[in-house]
Here is the input.
Amino acid sequence: MRALVHRFTLTDPGNVEPLAAALDAGTIAPGRIVAVIGKTPGNGLVNDYTRGYLSQSLALLIAAHTGETVTAVTARVPFIFSGGTEGVLTPHITVFSVVPGDGETGDSRPALAVATAFTGPLEPSDIGRGGQVRATADAVRQAMRQARIERPEDVHFVQVKGPCLTALAISQAHARGVPTAGDSPDKSMAWSRVASAFGVALALGEIDEQHFDESMMLRDFSRYSGVASCSSGVEVAVNEIVLLGNSRHWRGPLRIAHRPMRDALDITGVVDVLEDLGLSPRPQLAADDQRKLAAVFVKCEPDRSGTVRGQPHTMLNDGDMHAQRHIRGAVGALVAGVTGDTRLFVSGGAEHQGPDGGGMIAVIAHRSES
Amino acid sequence: MRALVHRFTLTDPGNVEPLAAALDAGTIAPGRIVAVIGKTPGNGLVNDYTRGYLSQSLALLIAAHTGETVTAVTARVPFIFSGGTEGVLTPHITVFSVVPGDGETGDSRPALAVATAFTGPLEPSDIGRGGQVRATADAVRQAMRQARIERPEDVHFVQVKGPCLTALAISQAHARGVPTAGDSPDKSMAWSRVASAFGVALALGEIDEQHFDESMMLRDFSRYSGVASCSSGVEVAVNEIVLLGNSRHWRGPLRIAHRPMRDALDITGVVDVLEDLGLSPRPQLAADDQRKLAAVFVKCEPDRSGTVRGQPHTMLNDGDMHAQRHIRGAVGALVAGVTGDTRLFVSGGAEHQGPDGGGMIAVIAHRSES
Amino acid sequence: MRALVHRFTLTDPGNVEPLAAALDAGTIAPGRIVAVIGKTPGNGLVNDYTRGYLSQSLALLIAAHTGETVTAVTARVPFIFSGGTEGVLTPHITVFSVVPGDGETGDSRPALAVATAFTGPLEPSDIGRGGQVRATADAVRQAMRQARIERPEDVHFVQVKGPCLTALAISQAHARGVPTAGDSPDKSMAWSRVASAFGVALALGEIDEQHFDESMMLRDFSRYSGVASCSSGVEVAVNEIVLLGNSRHWRGPLRIAHRPMRDALDITGVVDVLEDLGLSPRPQLAADDQRKLAAVFVKCEPDRSGTVRGQPHTMLNDGDMHAQRHIRGAVGALVAGVTGDTRLFVSGGAEHQGPDGGGMIAVIAHRSES
Amino acid sequence: MRALVHRFTLTDPGNVEPLAAALDAGTIAPGRIVAVIGKTPGNGLVNDYTRGYLSQSLALLIAAHTGETVTAVTARVPFIFSGGTEGVLTPHITVFSVVPGDGETGDSRPALAVATAFTGPLEPSDIGRGGQVRATADAVRQAMRQARIERPEDVHFVQVKGPCLTALAISQAHARGVPTAGDSPDKSMAWSRVASAFGVALALGEIDEQHFDESMMLRDFSRYSGVASCSSGVEVAVNEIVLLGNSRHWRGPLRIAHRPMRDALDITGVVDVLEDLGLSPRPQLAADDQRKLAAVFVKCEPDRSGTVRGQPHTMLNDGDMHAQRHIRGAVGALVAGVTGDTRLFVSGGAEHQGPDGGGMIAVIAHRSES
Here is the structure.
């Protein structure tokens, strides 16, 4: 098998012409699309409808090309969008497709592998709690098998999108006597991300299942997954998973690597992951190296201590501009400065996803020697 | 003469305890303070009162120590604050003081020189127009003489703070038949910055006075000052100027350098200015080099083309988060990633201040060899 | 003919279940839907994609029921959405459908009439200028004929939705040497509304065509249409018009009335228009009267003088919360307090639409005696 | 004794000229000022420094007139400011002063009485918990005695301002092992308001002290004070209390009344409280009645159910505009429409202050017959 990765700039979630053109031209086979990950131009918070809008637009487009129903496309292809392109970031999508069959020829080095999985529907009482953790862990294990990745250390990025609760949904749950994780939509988004992150960590053995306990969630930040990137939004009812790694069972010129980001100033983590892939920013990737970049995924968060390297930041006290909008714009610019590329997937809300106050970066690149 | 530069983290504009402690300890002589430049935690837009609040707090503090009246302190010391510490930025002040007399001893290499100047009061009809341009140019020339800097190329940073108009002031001016530059407070802020920038450019010969014409303003972006950094706010009625450069008539371990930033991804400009001063980010300044940093000043703006390096950004279309908040957070994080320091003066609104779509960076550092 | 008006609460632009249920139940015949006007939960500014999202969702739904293509539905049915449900406002749609044929029986009093029209595509050079004014005027005249309303005074509400320009579109136009009305997206939205309003005013004789001159636009605010309600957004390429009035050629229990709102505190205008329709708020409509309300449309704006009744407001100086978000929330709450109903179409940006600093209110209600 | 009430429009917290003029003119005796309550033009959230700025400006002004130190003024006069003048609201202050001695002459009807009190400093561990509740209750009882109001039902408004915690303060407390009420600044503000409200309710017997239990806080919303109006902010370290009521021991033409507001559409509550004072809005107060208004205080909140009168609102899901900004703008406009006056003290965050989802309104007016 061979994984293909195409990026398209899409500024309006209702306008998917660039992908339509690629489908028309045969560059991408619509039936082989297995996942789409992207950044949309909304606020990335509860009332960000750009994620759902782009999902609808893409499902319509793919369905029109494959003859599937829209529902069938949505059930088959995870559309995982993070809103918020603060600062220099560019709204865009990364389309993953899989070409079968040429696994036994050519280059035998490990290549990019991709697999997807879905949990069943999550109830309001599951979201942000043990139910979502366990369902996610099961789905991640299934995706790993599907990707034919044997060792957890060959998994470099697990993107999860899970549901969250609106104010109305929370209020209705409480009226029925159903407790919810988080009493506001914003908190519900955080709990959903946390449950997904613990699910990934359990599946990959980053946290020992026997020692897991719900009381760690949003409390013991020394526990985390180094490869999970979790989002939540009102536009999904199940957890959707896209797992990326390197596998000897896959072919092609693409590889993936990842590094932790220790804090929001960790330019070293950014440089290191690029060097892992044979790319050399001095201080920015030159044009040749930039062309080898296939996709960049970053997870980050405003340090909950209220400081960065001992100096105060104001992100958590700002009543007008959400802390997630602050941090995405900041870390996105740092990574864009090093890569010279603004089509970055930068997602906030990194609770238990990488070191506390930091996060992680994963990069897919073409082999340098190819 | 010797210029001293002290930075203090101040998160609440009403709490100037850290400076008070330095005055009490004798680290800084209150009567020798000549200027204070800083970042406050407001939104950096028209309704940002943190700038005025901090000015009031500092004037009270200095007056209490020198025995001057508050009015006398304010008339003598420019307090130039830019609001908006988006992302990783830290609210702080940089206090400039001047120690007389030791000019003839020791190291004869050029050292940091600082001088200040004020225009007379500007009328609503002057703001953002020729009147403000000419008054600023005169004040900059006066500051240059005062700093004993003979050559314009030895001027590395000219910070200007000028007045702007509120909605009410604009409406009152129009009712009296007085035209204003800009019909909204936001536009008035921009025109004021532009007039200040042209004033600096004329004074330093960056634009030939004979070729200057008001129609260039906010139109011909190929004309700019490479060292101007202009802010505007409702809290001042005159243009206040702080001019920084290197001069053989000054002594001490500090030097200043500057570089243009070609766009919001110009990490090379950041690295270059640090290397100009003998500091080596690889990719970030090591602790030893960080300690040599005395102050960093950055001017930036969202590219008016709606793109960065050919890819769309969303800063200018965002109805909820002002473009200036976007760009400060982005460029601030890039510079903080390279320097490892978040106490940066990063100011948006770089019209005619550095290359279009970019801006400039100026850094004061201790000599590396000292 | 008979005009039917149905309101549905729709909180998520991707979820049109309530209308789907009405179509399934036969309450509304999908092929008879002639227009949908509504409020979506976005910010109502340039980067509000909830309008386009809801349009796409509704077009898909109607197409699925009628067998038309999505393109055919969109070309036939104006979907006019205003984003921004600040404060107590509820996202909702008002669906207009027309039942033919029963014009000659029953009650002979004038009843609600509805008609729609579209201009051709508008170029960037037309938007906010004479081209858009004239095209709108032609379309309004055509809608009036279609509605069989002979006298302009029987027209009570003309909703127009027109295109506007993003930062990128403005920059591209300028690069081609094409001047645009407004140099920012926000300004482009305003100019588009203004051109539409003048188009309505010319068509209805509120402004004499011979005296019209482009220089009046955004300058002479004594010129306005008393019944125009104009929006703009990136999601349309033509002007779409929905015209409402009373006509003896129509039947049914619904009537429409309108009143100017002199300023943002004009509760008297709200009470008067309800009393025009036989409804009595004391101080709020009682449940019986509330049930007679079919739809409420309000246009409003932050007074450009910076004051309301001589006292300052802060809407135009606020860098974090757009003035349109301020005014919609304020005027929406005033009208909701009097009507007891939050499903109000409240739209900001009332330049030349009602008295300067105010706007207008139009109400459709069931006859009180019926 | 006689209570005097003066309102001044103050748009810039650094400009207190209108009050200075009144002091210079002798209209107000600076030493008799006992409290100042007002609205400032900030965002009313954690990072709103306009409250502290105005406090500093007023303390300086009064100290300059009385010869007191600034510290002495601040310790004597509660300055209670609520940020956020959304929509039509006007930044302003209401100055309370007390003239001694003329209690035994003239009109013997109950008149406006005012008293103030302060708690001792509150620790991070007290804020939002039992410690703050009890300290507030004691202070309210003391203020009631000072005001010579015997019966709780003669107390009509108790304004409390209490401290809250920034992100940094929360993080520092947690590092020391000190639990805090609320793990974010926003939540800390809410808990502080709640503790103050329970303190008022206990002091006035609205909740029986024996039945009070901390677990009611932010949980059992059927428990509330009908006259408490509680704010919190980083600018105070103790609870400051201003208590208003009617007392036979006081003289003068002013009276106060209050009514609950059942929800954000409760225009009837607004009309009723005006009629209690002999004022008749039809639908708005006529100019004569407007002149009798001395001050209006409103407390409100976004209904936590996510609905108003059964219809959804979007206030609690909005990631860009804080729910408190939504609700202040909405309820402020409703009250301004009825009174015809925009100088209203409208404060959000009404947890346990009036009916759940609503709040309260208190009005001071001159006797109608006088």
Summary: The CA atoms of residues 36 and 95 of chain A lie 5 Å apart. The longest strand of chain A covers residues 111-121.
